[in-house]
Specification:
two-stranded antiparallel sheet, alpha+beta, 2 domains
Length: 146
């Protein structure tokens, strides 16, 4: 879903000018891709779009650029120690300083089970929509850190 959206953004910027986020959001909606402002801001950052007087533009070579973010599985394996469930909430205990990369990885993946994350220094709170989804996500995380 994300790669489809990123490709649509790239395609729009190659074919037309886009002066602001709201215009980009409307053009994506015209293609059947509905996004929130927060998601669009994250996409702009991830695609490293530049904004100039003519609007947004792709960085040089962006059509062939690979994702700079490490795989979430690697981040979980390297930083996570344990995951605990409390109804619809998950608490991931990490190494010192590991909470930020884990939370950022969760946010980046946009898994359906994740409503949002909050990171401290060595603890990540993951909010899920309900206890069932939290349990599914807990099982997935445990498989990565085992």
């Amino acid at each position: 879903m994300k790669s489809h959206r990123h490709n649509a953004i790239k395609d729009l910027l190659v074919k037309t000018s886009v002066t602001n986020q709201d215009e980009l959001r409307r053009k994506l909606a015209g293609k059947g891709i509905h996004v929130t402002q927060a998601t669009l801001s994250r996409d702009i950052r991830e695609l490293k779009l530049m904004k100039g007087p003519g609007g947004y533009a792709l960085p040089n070579g962006a059509e062939h650029e690979e994702n700079d973010f490490p795989m979430l599985q690697d981040v979980l394996r390297n930083f996570s120690l344990e995951v605990r469930q409390a109804q619809n909430l998950l608490v991931v205990l990490t190494t010192t300083g590991g909470a930020q990369p884990v939370a950022a990885g969760m946010d980046y993946e946009e898994w359906d089970e994740v409503v949002g994350t909050i990171a401290g220094d060595n603890t990540v709170l993951i909010i899920c929509a309900d206890a069932r989804r939290a349990e599914i996500l807990k099982t997935r995380i445990e498989a990565y850190i085992a």
